[in-house]
Amino acid sequence: MTLLDCTLRTGGQLTGGSVPPALAADYLAVCARVGVDIVELGTVHDPTGQGAPFGDLLPVPLPDDHDERYGPRFSVLLDTAPLPVTDTAATAAAGRIAEALAAGSVPVGLVRLAVRYDRVARVAAPLHRLREAGLGVCLFLTDIDLASYPELDRCLGEAAALGPLDAVFLVDSLGSFRPERVIELVQSTRAAVTAPVGIHAHDNQGFALHNTVVAGSAGATWQDTAVHGIGPGAGLTRTEQLLALLGAAPADLTPLLALIATHVAPLKQRYGWGAGPRQVMAGLARIPVSAVRGLDPHAGP
């Protein structure tokens, strides 16, 4: 199993910037102790494109004793929707991103390309450019629960045509995954692509942990989590819960629980992520939370 923790990225989304430096420093120290394989630092953009500029993804320096051989690796998420449509321009944008990552202070080795399930073919050119730069590449298939059977077949066929991938992630963008659908999607993906399958579960319906475990039983070997589920809306599968379910001893989880008590619980009190009524409604109806915003003014972000 490969555990990819999204705390820094989704925490930054929640706060509108980056997580507090003290949280980041303590979090990195804890990750190496509890068995996190990959830390996702944040979302990257074309340095010369529109939107947020490319910046330093880590609000604190790496610990002096960080060892790439034994400590967690680092990933970033690239939203491909803003990339140019033409292959030439998209390839150039991906090249600039690769150069910026190489020049950064953190050794990023993996880029996850977020793409809607019906637009996979258009990421071929930038994906190949990132791979040529020596970066590992993953597909991060958003809105996948909306795909019909013919659309799913086409999506996975296009994914298989992209060549070697580090993993293909099934993303519960709407918080709508049900266990039976998770099994179906994992099995279909495993049959279509040679890459490992991953799961990124949102907790709108309280199913995030269950869906992550079910995906693992169906053959998904990469799991996304976030400490205490931190993230916009309903949040994600909780790192501490998944580790406990996988057999981590209470003593091994003590540093992580201390991190939550010291740093994350105060953020939860301030930002209030979790499954409020409108998040539950959105998950049940398979619609974006933004579409029902305002129906419950007390539901949180």
Automatic annotation (TrEMBL):
What keyword terms does UniProt attach to this protein? Manganese
Classification via Gene3D superfamilies: Aldolase class I
Domain (Pyruvate carboxyltransferase) spans: 1-261
**Entry's InterPro entries?**
2-IPM_HCS-like, Aldolase_TIM, PYR_CT
Q: Does the keyword Manganese apply?
A: yes
This one is known as Pyruvate carboxyltransferase domain-containing protein
Q: Which organism is it from?
A: Streptomyces wedmorensis
For this protein's source organism, the top of the classification is:
Bacteria, Bacillati, Actinomycetota, Actinomycetes, Kitasatosporales
